[in-house]
Write a structure and sequence with these properties.
Elements: E1 5-14, E2 17-21, E3 27-31, H1 43-46, E4 52-61, E5 64-68, H2 71-74, E6 96-101, E7 104-108, E8 114-118
Antiparallel strand pairs: 1-2, 1-4, 2-3, 4-5, 6-7, 7-8
């Protein structure tokens, strides 16, 4: 299911993010950093309990589902990298920077797939 666009209802909002529920009762976490492209200081102002919103599944691990509400990821028409087999030479896709180092940055894709983008000198 990683990469799938889904509709869910916000059932709880806290400082760490929001808990959302899919039709059928399955719950997922939308972490604070994935609630928006922009930094959110007060998550309760962005996400209202009871609101139905559109998300994209970032990953599923041990029955825990993580979703994003970042518009660039939710609305993207680019291919999804959810396994290392999905990565091909020249592929253009969305990822998000997890950490910046002196020689480059660590980039995460769907389903926990990650890589390193080196800085050209």
């Amino acid at each position: 299911m990683p990469g799938m666009v889904v509709r869910a209802k916000v059932i709880h909002v806290d400082s760490f993010g929001a808990i959302v529920q899919f039709p059928g009762g399955v719950k997922a976490l939308c972490p604070l950093r994935h609630m928006s492209e922009f930094e959110i200081v007060k998550p309760g102002k962005k996400f209202k309990v009871g609101a139905e919103l559109v998300f994209r599944v970032l990953g599923v691990k041990s029955k825990r589902i993580t979703v994003t509400h970042k518009k660039t990821l939710v609305k993207s028409k680019l291919g999804i990298v959810s396994s290392y087999a999905d990565a091909t030479d020249g592929l253009i896709t969305h990822g998000w920077i997890m950490k910046i180092e002196k020689h480059g940055c660590f980039v995460r894709f769907y389903n926990g797939v990650q890589g390193f983008a080196s800085r050209l000198v």
